[in-house]
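Practice set, problem 2.
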Amino acid sequence: AIRMLEEYAKTHRLQIHDEAMLMFTLSESYKLKGDEENRKRCLLVSSINDLKSPIREYSALRELAVMLYRDGDIDRAYTCIKLCMEDASICNARLRIVEVLDLFPVINDTYQQEKEAQQKKLKVMLCIILALSLCLSAGIYYMYKQMKRLALARRQVVEANDKLKQV
């Protein structure tokens, strides 16, 4: 099936939606074969064509979101599943909404947890930067005071030398 579908895709000029369906079918064949890399490639091509097409059936995008989630690419998985959910809601496609609702909470929760962790890291980094800035400011203030003392000491040495020369 894979050989036949790939040959058909190469030899025929297809409409966008037809190519999307063909690539999705090809991705399912790669899934049965266990070839995840080619499956992901086919899902990507199918998703791109689905997005270009006026038909808002995102089977490939939903599958791609699951693959990305399993691979740990939470940001992209969230973007894909959110787009599926938005278009299913706009089109009022109940079956698609139900299909997406199985995945959306899991991906959304993981995405939110990741964003919260990033916010915590950002706050810690901000505190560290603030502490370093305060240390730098204190160091600059200390150097300024030392330079004033040094200038005063130099003036005193010059005055003492002048007095010695006079004596």
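Problem 2, part (b): a different protein.
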Amino acid sequence: HIDEKKVIAAISPVKDVDGFSPINQGNNLLNSHGLRPATPRGIMRLIHSTEKRIAGLHAVVVGRSNIVGKPVAAMLLNSDCTVTICHSKTKRLGDYTKKADILVAAVGKAKIIKAGMVKKGAIVIDAGTVKVNDKLVGDVDFAGAKKKASFITPVPGGVGPMTIACLIENTLQACRDQHKAY
């Protein structure tokens, strides 16, 4: 009975450390100052940690949520990547993922990305989490994909810790912004 959009819109953008408010989502899209969603921010940190120049690379984001998929697609686009957005209902998903220099999986379907769907040398970021038989697994078949990827994140232990780190950074940034202390 609670309208999620109304609740999120009621959060002050300067206190929105999750980066979910319409103002912060708009700032992310426009590449303007504001608090970025923590998980996409962590994903970008992981991609940049490879020290690979990503401008001009083809990034495929599998997932279209307002929390991860759409914001990370905007961040990749703002980093000069060519971006394709897919989702759980995309037909012939592998046709898209096989062309990805950067593959971000954030759809929440266990092992939807098989090894044969990964381009050799790709950066693979698995941001999906699903419980299967009381075990946390990701969207990517890690065992198979790690043989092809130049960089891959595990589930658990990959994107999750980066999300927490970026949430803490957002909290510090929010404090600085509110108190004009840089």
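Answer key, part (b): The longest strand covers residues 58-62. The radius of gyration is 16 Å.
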